[in-house]
Each structure stands twice: as C-alpha cells, then as structure tokens.
Design a protein that fits this description.
Elements lengths: L1 H23 L1 E9 L4 E8 L6 H6 L4 E12 L6 E15 L4 E6 L5 E5 L2 H9 L4 E4 L9 E12 L4 H6 L8 E2 L3 E6 L1
Antiparallel strand pairs: 1-2, 2-7, 3-4, 3-8, 4-5, 5-6, 8-9, 8-10
C-alpha cells in the first residue's frame, strides 16, 4: 500500500510541475503590419523552453512549436465574421555528429535554417516573423478586427509501446493561453 501511495505522489508532483511550466509560457511581443500588399504579424513565445528541454533536443528528439492563428472581423449586433485561421509549425532536429540544429519554418515555405548556436535556435523556434496572413486590399476599412494566437510545444510522438516506455518526453508538452489583440483597420 505504501508503494502505491508513493507512486501516486510522484505522479501528482510531476503533473503539478508540468502545469506550473505551462503557465509560464505565453505569447507576447505582437507586431501587426497592415501594409498595402498584405496583413502580416510577428510575435514571440516567452519562456517557451522549460528546464530539461535542451537535453531532450540535443539527444535527437525532434521538437515542434505549433502556432495557431485565428482572425475575425468584429460586428456589434451580430456574430463576428471569421476571416480565416492558420496553423504552422517550427520544428527543430539536432544532428549529434555535426553538432548543429536544423530548424524548419513552415510559414516560410518549409525553409530550413541550420545553426550551431543554441540561443539562435531558441529565437528561430519561438519567434515567427513577418507571417503573411492575407492581402490587405481584401480587408474593408473602418471595421474592428481581432487576432487570437496560441502556441503548443510538442516533442515527437513515439509509436504505441515506446510512448509508454518514454512517458517522460510528454512532460515538456506545453500550451500557451490564447492571446487576443483587437485593432481597427
């Protein structure tokens, strides 16, 4: 009976520490650009790399940031109009032989960036830059709009049996809260 209580206590401690880490990560530093040719945005995920994730990445575990963006036009006396939603990833793989990070940026046409610098890799992974959403000429002027942004950090999913053997990899899965930004164009 004591062993079961100790096991349950350990699982609860891990769950609580994972929730505490998830609360720290958040979307910030949003910059919306409404140039004549396109509506684009740049933002960053603060505190996106929890303790221990560097070792997991350096061991060769592919890690992805999944970014979700929803865009709506606000209306006063009716439902908001959905203007679109986008989903894109940043994925990093570490090559242990060359000791370099390969980052794939989906929103840039699956652009691959290779670096040996850990800090540069963190910046590329957690800071989408100049993401083009849609042409500005398609947006009616004088209306209120709202952006919703969320980020998810995911280590790779392993096959069925291995997923249970290496359960500790799921400890680094983090979701930010939805970040909302209202503006008038």
């Amino acid at each position: 009976m004591k062993k079961i209580l100790i096991f349950i206590s350990i699982i609860l401690a891990i769950a609580i520490s994972t929730d505490a880490q998830a609360a720290k990560a958040r979307v910030g530093g949003l910059k919306v650009t409404t140039a004549p040719e396109a509506l684009s945005l740049s933002f960053s995920v603060e505190n996106a790399f929890p303790e221990g994730i560097e070792d997991a990445i350096k061991s060769g575990v592919p890690t992805s940031f999944n970014f979700l963006v929803e865009f709506t036009r606000r209306r006063r006396l009716w439902f908001d109009k959905d203007m679109g939603s986008w989903n894109f990833k940043h994925t990093v793989k570490y090559d242990t032989l060359k000791q370099e990070y390969e980052i794939t940026l989906e929103e840039k046409g699956f652009l691959k960036v290779i670096t040996k610098d850990y800090e540069e890799m963190k910046k590329l992974m957690s800071s989408p830059d100049s993401v083009v959403l849609l042409p500005s000429w398609g947006l009616p002027r004088g209306y209120g709009y709202e952006l919703h942004i969320m980020a998810e950090l995911r280590t790779i999913r392993l096959p069925f049996r291995l997923d249970y053997m290496f359960f500790f990899l799921r400890l680094w899965d983090i979701d930010t809260d939805w970040y909302s930004y209202k503006f008038t164009y």
